[in-house]
Please model this.
Amino acid sequence: MTLPKTPSFRLDGKRALVAGASSGIGLACAAALGEAGAEVTLAARRVDVLDVLVDEMTAAGMSARALPLDVADVAGTQTAVAGAGPFDILVNSAGLARHSPASETTEEDFDAVADLNVKGAYFLTQAVAKGLAGAGRPGSLINISSQMAHVGGLDRAVYCATKHAVEGFTKAMAIEWGKSGIRVNTICPTFILTDLTRSTFEQPDKRAWIEDKIKLGRVGAVEDIMGAVVYLASDASGLVTGSALMIDGGWTAE
Model:
């Protein structure tokens, strides 16, 4: 009998684009893909930060480069991706949250969050897929969504709406592009401690609410995302598409 062999988690020879790569989850995803052997293009608005990160990744033996990119600028994103691609892997970690009670949501806040989280994410995913289709190549496209794409949350009506929308277009794109070998999935983290979320954790009532909902009894770290993104980017997840990978410590299990 011949034993089956686990498909490789390695990404050698693959080109990856990570949007929102200048900090937090995006930076962790870029590092994870680089460690797995991918050539990683780090994209964000803060070019000075990207240059420093590229130097650090290169010094660590990874292949990395920087790409100035504002995902909310659809035309600029399409031009940048077409010029720098095609990319075998996309990780879109660019996102925005403006929290308030639903009764106090302003049109300005709604538009700002929706323009980046939905419109920007949609057309970035489309741009990378077009590059792959034009080159006749398969690929793995990953949007960083949220546990809030599957539940509701206090003061998070707009954020929840945008992340629910990401799940919807992810499924539709997965259906449309499946025959081309282009897989589309989401990663749905719980609250992850980063510089951007630190202020939330410093509020005792909110931290208590978060820790009560996370069944594993601890908040998330960016390292909790790294293995998942390598899995979805690699051949190890070759039959996974149109799916949401929950990294929520059991929040949505109830």
